[in-house]
Design goal:
The chain has about 220 residues and is an alpha+beta fold. The chain has one domain: Jelly Rolls (Sandwich), CATH 2.60.120. Helices cover about 25% and strands about 25% of the residues. It is built from 5 helices and 13 strands. Strands 3-4-5-12-7-10 form a 6-stranded antiparallel beta sheet. A 3-stranded antiparallel beta sheet has the order 9-8-11, with no helix packed on it. Helix 2 packs across helix 3 (about 40-50) and helix 2 (about 25-35) crosses helix 5 (about 95-105). It is globular. Bound molecules: zinc ion.
Length: about 220
Amino acid sequence: MNDYTPQHHPSEALLMDHALGNLALGFGLAVDVHLDTCEQCQGDFRLMQELAGGLLADTAEQDLGRHDIASLLDQLPEQEPATMPLVTVDSDLPAHLAQCFLDLNIDPGPNSTLPFVTRAPGIGTIPLSKEANGTFARLMRIAAGKAVPHHSHNGLEVTALIKGSYEDEVSWYGPGDFVEHGPEIKHQPIAGVERDCICIGVTEGPLAFTNPLYRVLRPFFPV
Ligand SMILES: [Zn+2]
C-alpha cells in the first residue's frame, strides 16, 4: 500500500485486549486498520488469537461487530453541511476502513468523495462510531502543514495513520503507523507539508486543550 514500513505499532497489551474481544469498537477499528497494513503485527495478532482461543476468528463475531457499528450510528448527532473541499478516495484504502465506510453508506470506491465536516481551520472530521462508554472514533483530515491545537487527553488516545504524516513532541509518524498516547502525554500534532494527513483518531474522553483560547474548540471535537 505504501513504500513506508510502519515503525510504530500497538502495544502488546492493546493487541491482546483486541484478541480477547475486550476493546471498545472504536479502538478495535483503529487496530484492525493498522493490521490491514502491518505484516509484523498481523503475525503477532494471529498468535494472540490462538492464545485467546480464536475468538475473533469466529465469523459470527466479526459480523456482530459490523452490525454494532451500524446501530451505533443512529445515536450520532446530525452533522453540519460539509464545507471542506471534497477529498477523492484512493483505491488502496485499508480493508477495515473501506468496510466501515460501507456501514456508513459512504462509497469507498475510487474517485468517490468523503464528506469531511470542518471542525477548525484546516481540520475536518467524519464520525465513525460513538459508544455509550465514551469511546469516539472519527476519521480526521489535517491539511498539509496545519497543526491540531496543543492538548492532552482524559484517557487513551489512539491514532491510526492512513495517508500523509504528522509530527508531535514525541516522534514522527508515517502511513500505517499506530500511535498510542495515555493521559500523561501533552502534544500538538502537525501534519507534514507534503500532503494532507488522513488518520483515524479514537479517544475515550474529551480532548483537554491546554491553551484556554482553544477550549472554545472543544465542541468541535465532540465525544
Ligand atoms: Zn504493526
